[in-house]
Specification:
single chain, Rossmann fold, seven-stranded parallel sheet, 40% helix, globular, binds nicotinamide-adenine-dinucleotide, binds UDP-4-deoxy-4-formamido-beta-L-arabinopyranose
């Protein structure tokens, strides 16, 4: 088991790259496959600086069946950690076909080649978005499934594909890890979230405001039924998330079936609490102003991670202050991310 070679689709992206570190630290061999639609090739250099290892890179797309077949054979892949996807909720509403094509058809192509090559273990990047509008919090895995946008539906659909493949093939293992709000960066400051264009998510937006690339943070909604009126989410450090993948795979690598797990901390933080933590990290005031609620947002959303804690021998260990400290270390070392950094 310790010598398993893992194909990491989307391995140059935010969560995939951090998971490559956790895989390496646990004795696995990651092979990165990425089409670089939302990542920089320099991620591979940063991974080498952190781990001392140059991970093999396959530059290409999960929809390219010939490339996948060649990759499975060349590297003798034992399991797939499948991160590759488009992930912007608003964009998915405007371009649904692009999302279904990339996320659903891409996963289908990958599963078909896995079947042809006899690879029967997948760890899938699912999302709390598969719970749709929360009917209660904390959200456990028994919460009803649904969605409010094409991105979310693409995750629901891939989960269904995995359920069906696992019920047709009694040797197939599918772990669907439902992430809440991944944030943070590697503690070295060498690797972190590097969004192209204007960030959609709160923490990258705060980080870019702190470094002077944005004027101020807009706080979407200050009249929610929460302690300070702003939205509450379950922010989880990306390295805790990465370690959760390894824990899930180690626990279940000899099993079969479809197994969903929430990966969250079980604690909620408000937008203003995140801003305050970030101010402490960077030692400066972060300008913000109240703005109307963002369409589609809910007041509160956080995980019940009890199942993962009980079965996977894992729990999120890093607190909000560690998350914002690590983001600031990364953002201040690489103000423009990896795309334009020249030293
Ligand atoms: P990311 O955009 O940083 O990483 C995704 C990577 O996949 C990118 O490097 C991109 O270039 C690559 N990619 C996309 N389509 C591809 C394709 N067809 N072929 C090959 N490579 C392709 O995003 P992330 O935040 O690291 O998210 C990773 C996964 O986790 C995604 O599946 C996402 O939906 C899921 N997820 C993310 C969040 C979040 O808030 N970041 C929350 C829940 C779930
Ligand atoms: C967090 C809070 C905003 C930006 C999204 C996806 C979800 C999952 C994780 C993939 C909310 C507020 C935000 C800003 C703000 N992704 N906010 N100003 O919406 O909880 O989840 O990412 O699966 O599917 O929907 O995350 O970071 O966008 O927002 O006030 O500029 O910050 O209203 O309360 P969200 P987020």
């Amino acid at each position: 088991m310790m010598e398993n070679t893992i194909l990491v689709t989307g391995g140059a992206g935010f969560i995939g790259s951090h998971t490559c570190i956790a895989l390496h630290e646990a004795g696995f061999r990651p092979v990165v496959l990425d089409n670089f639609s939302n990542a920089s090739v320099r991620v591979l250099d940063q991974l080498e600086r952190i781990t001392g290892q140059r991970f093999p890179l396959v530059r290409g797309d999960i929809r390219d069946a010939d490339l996948l077949r060649d990759t499975f054979q060349r590297y003798r892949i034992d399991a797939v950690f499948h991160f590759a996807a488009l992930k912007a909720v608003g964009e998915s509403v405007r371009q649904p076909l692009a999302y279904y094509e990339n996320n659903v058809s891409g996963s289908l192509a990958l599963l078909q080649v896995m079947q042809q090559c006899g690879v029967r273990r997948m760890v899938f990047s699912s999302s709390a978005t598969v719970y749709g509008e929360p009917q209660y919090v904390p959200i456990d895995e028994a919460h009803p499934i649904g969605s409010t946008n094409p991105y979310g539906w693409s995750k629901v659909m891939v989960e269904q594909l995995l359920r069906d493949v696992a019920s047709a093939d009694s040797d197939f293992l599918a772990l669907a890890l439902r992430y809440f709000n991944p944030v943070g960066a590697h503690e070295s400051g060498l690797l972190g979230e590097d969004p192209l264009g204007t960030p959609n998510n709160l923490v990258p937006f705060i980080a870019q405001t702190a470094i002077g690339r944005r004027e101020h943070v807009q706080v979407f909604g200050s009249d929610y039924q929460t302690t300070d009126g702003t939205g509450v989410r379950d922010y989880i450090h990306v390295m805790d998330l990465a370690e959760g993948h390894v824990a899930a795979f180690r626990t279940h690598c000899g099993d079969f079936g479809f197994k969903p797990y929430n990966l969250g901390t079980g604690r909620g933080s408000s937008v203003l609490e995140v801003i305050t933590a970030f101010e402490k990290s960077c030692g400066a005031h972060i300008p913000w102003e109240a703005a109307p609620r963002r369409p589609g947002d809910v007041a509160v959303n956080w995980a019940d991670p009890a199942l993962a804690v009980k079965r996977l021998n894992w729990r999120a260990r890093r607190d909000l202050q560690t998350m914002t400290d690590d983001v600031w270390r990364w953002q201040s070392a690489y103000p423009n991310g990896l795309q334009e950094h020249t030293s």
